[in-house]
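Complex record, two chains
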Amino acid sequence: MTPARLPWIAAIGYLAFALAFKLNWRAPQDWNRIDLPALSSRAVRLVEDMTNFDVSNWTRQSAPRMDHALDQWRRSNGREPIDGLLTPLYVVITFRDPLSTSAVEVMLAPDGHPRGIRFMGPPRQHPEVKDFDVEAEAALTRLAGSFATRFEPETGRAEDRDDRFRWTAKTSSPSLVWRASVNLDRGRFHAAHIEPVFQGAAQPGRFLQGGGYDAMQGLVMLIAGVWCVFAYLSGWARRIMDHRLAFTAGGVFLLFDAAGRLAAGDRAAALSWLGMLVAATGVAMTTGAGRLAASGHEWPRWQSFVLFLRFHWKTNGVGVSVLTGLAWAGAVAAVPFLAAGIFPDAALNVATYGAPTLARWPAVASLVPLIERGVYSPLVLFAPLIFRRWLVARTALIVLAAAVALGLFAAANPFSAGVEASLVSAVCAAALLTAIYYLHGLLAVLTAYKTATVLTAIAGLLSAGLFLPASLLMALLAALAAASLWAARRGRHLEPQDDRNISYAYLSPREKLKAEFSLAHQAQQRMLPGAAPPLEGFTLAAACQPARDVGGDLYDYFPLPDGRLGICVADVSGKGMPAALYMTLTKGVLAAASPECGDLAQLAQHLNRHLYAAGKRKIFVTAVLAAVDAATRSVEFVRAGHNPILLRCAASGSARYLAAKGLGLGMTGGPLFARATAVERFTLDPGDTLVLYSDGVTEAMNARLEQYGEDRLKSVVERSGSAAPAGVLALIREDVAAFTGAEPVHDDITIVVLQAAPNGAKG
Amino acid sequence: MPNSFSVSGSRQEGISVLALDGFLDAHTAPAFEEAIEKEVSAGHNRIVVDCARLAYISSAGLGVFMTFIEEVREAGGDIKICAVIPKVGQVFEILGFNSLFEIVGDIPQAVARFAHSRAEGG
C-alpha cells in the first residue's frame, strides 16, 4: 500500500461514515428534552419528600440509561395512558455523601417523573421508618402518581415479610405489567421503584439489555486482568516486561483517564485505585506482549508502536503509521453504522455514546471511553501474543481470546440491543482492523480504532447541536494529523542501526544471540573487498556466500610490492564462528604480510607460520594465492591445499584445472610446507578466464547426496562463451543452485573470476 | 540432512585399526576425534585409519588427522591411512595429505608398513 492511496482511503472511508451515520444514528425519543440541572433539583426534592432526607449538599453524578426491552415493547404496543407510566429513556442521578460511604440513587424520566429511589451503603445510615404501611403507600403514590389506584397488592409472594411491599398494575397488553416495590428494610428506608415485568414469550433477551453491556465489559476486563496477573506471577511476563517504559506509559494513560473522569463529573471513579492498578498492569502487559512479538518476525509491525511508547514521536515511521490510522478511521467508524442499517432494532448505547452530549464538558467527556479502552483494547487484542507459544498448542485458548476480542468490539459498539447487530459489527471491525494490522502495523490499528471513537463522538455532538465541543475534537484530530504529517515528511528516518538498538532491548536471549550473529555476518561481509581494484586490461568479479550467518571463506585483493595485483581465495576448515575467527586472522596476516613479500612462496610460508602457531594444527586454512602482472598477462600462483584453479582458454573454448603441488596452511611446520608447496606460472591470452573458487562450489550436494563436482564446474565455465566475469559468476551460481535444488547450502561458496580483456588491449 | 557416520575400532598385531563409515564432516568429526583420543590416551600410538567405507570427508574431518599426527609421531607412533575411495583420495590430494601421511591400499599393507618402519628403526 503506497502513501499515495491514503487520501483515497480516507475520502471513501469518511464519506461512508458520514452517510451511514446520517442514515442510522438513532438518538432515543425525548433525548433532547433531558435537562440535567432541572432533573437534579427534582431528584433532591424527591428524596426529601419520600424520606425527609437532605442530599442537597452531596456530590452528584448523572448518567442516562436506556431500557431497550421497554423501548421494543413500546414500539409495537402501548395504547392506554398507563402504558406510558415509564419511559424507556431515563436518567440515573447518584448522590454521594462526601463524609461517609452513603449514597442515594434516583431514577427519573426526562420529564422528571420518578422511576425509583435507592439507598446504598450501611443500612444504619438510611432514613428511619415508623409506620410501614403508611410509608409504603405514600411511596407508591409518589412513584405512580394518578395511576397509584390501578396498582393492586401482589399475592403469593415468596417471602412474607412486613417490611417488603409489592404491587402490580395491568397495561393494555397481557405481555407487560408494571410492578411497584417498596423495601423498608427492618425499619430503614432502602428502596422504592417501578419496573416493567414482561410476561411469557415477550420477555426479551436480558443479557444485552442495558446492564448486560456493563457486565460484558466487566467480564472482558476481568478475564484480561486474571490473564495478566497470571502471566505476571508465572514470572514469564515479568521477564519480558520493560517495567520503566510500561509504568511511564501507564502513568500517562492514567493521568488522562483521571482528568477525563473528573471532567465527566465522576470524581469517585477518577480516584479508584483498583482501576488505576488494572490500567497500569494493562499497559505494562501490552508492552510485554510487544516485547515478545517484537522479537519475532512481527517486529516490523510493532516497531512504530514501540517507538511511540518510547516517546520517539518525531520519527518518520510513527508519523506515517498515525497518518495511515487516521486515513482508515472513517472506514472503521462506518462499520457499526452500516451494521445498524441492516438491523433496525439496534439503538444508541446512551450510557457511553450519548452521555457526553449531556456532560458539562462534552468534548472531554467524549474522550473518556476512548482513554478507558485505550488501555484495555490493545491489552485484550494482543494479550494472545503473550501466550503465543502456548496458544499454538491450546486451541481452546485461541477461541477464548478471539471471543474476548469480539466481546470487546461488541461492547465498544455505539449501538446496543440486538445481539446480531453487535456481532456482525464486531466481526467486521475485527476483520478490518486485522487487515490494517497486516498492511500497516499495530500503531495504525490503534490509531484507526481510537480515531473511529472520536469520529463517532464528533458526529454525535454535531447531531445534538453541540458545535463548539465537536469543533474542539475536530481541532484535536486536525492537530494530530498535522503533527503526524510533519513527522512523516520531516521526521527522523530510522537508521538500521537505530532500529537494531531499539529492537535489541526487546529480544529474548536466543534472539539476542541471533542478532549478534547477524551483526557478525554484516561485519564479515564488510571485510570482503567492496569493489574489485582496477587492473589494466582485466575485469574481475567476486562473490562470497556463507552457508550460515558467518563462515570461514575469504577472498581478498592485495597489491604486491612489485606492482602486481594479488588475489586470494581461502577456506578455513570447519564452519561457523570458529572458522570465522580464523578467517579474520587470515585476512589480517595477509594484509600485514603482503606489502613486504615480494614473491608468493614467501607470502604463503609467512601465512603458514602464523596459522600453524595460532591453530595448533587442528584448524587449518586452504588457499589459492595468485599474482597477476597486468602488463605481461602472466599469472603466478600457489595452491596451498586449496581446490585447483580453473582456466578457460578463449581461443579453444575449453577449460582445464591447474593444480600446482601444495599443502594446506597451518598444518605443518615451515620446512615441510616449503618443500611441499610450489609456485607455478602461466600466461593468459586475451579473453581467457580464470576461476578461483572454494570447495563449497564443487562439494555442493543435491538431495541424492551427489556432489556438484569439478566436471560440472568445468562444463559450465566452458559454456560461458564470451560472458564477462560477472556473467560467468552468475552462470556458475545459477548452475550450482539448479543442481542442489531445495537442499540447504552446507558450505560457504566463494568464487572469484578474472578475465583478460578480449580485445587484448593492455593500455 | 543428518549424515550417518560411525567409527569401529579393532586391534591387529598390536596396531589399532579404526574403520570409518559414512560422512565425516563438522557434525560427525567429534566422534572420530573421540575415537582417536581413546587410542592415544590408552598408549596406542600406532593407528591405521581404514577409509574403505568413508564416503565423504570435509575440512573439519581432515582437521582431526592434523590434531593428532604430531602427538603420535612424537610418541614414536604414526597414523596411516588406507583403502581410500577415489573421491576422498582427491580431497586428500588437494590438501597435500600425501606429503604428510602415508596412504596405502589396504589394512595388511598399512600394518606391514608399521612392521617395516619398526624393523628399519630396530
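Note: The interface with chain B takes residues 571-576, 616-620, 622, 640-644, 659, 661-664, 667-668, 672, 675-677, 695, 699, 701, 707, 743-744, 746-747 of chain A (CB under 8 Å).
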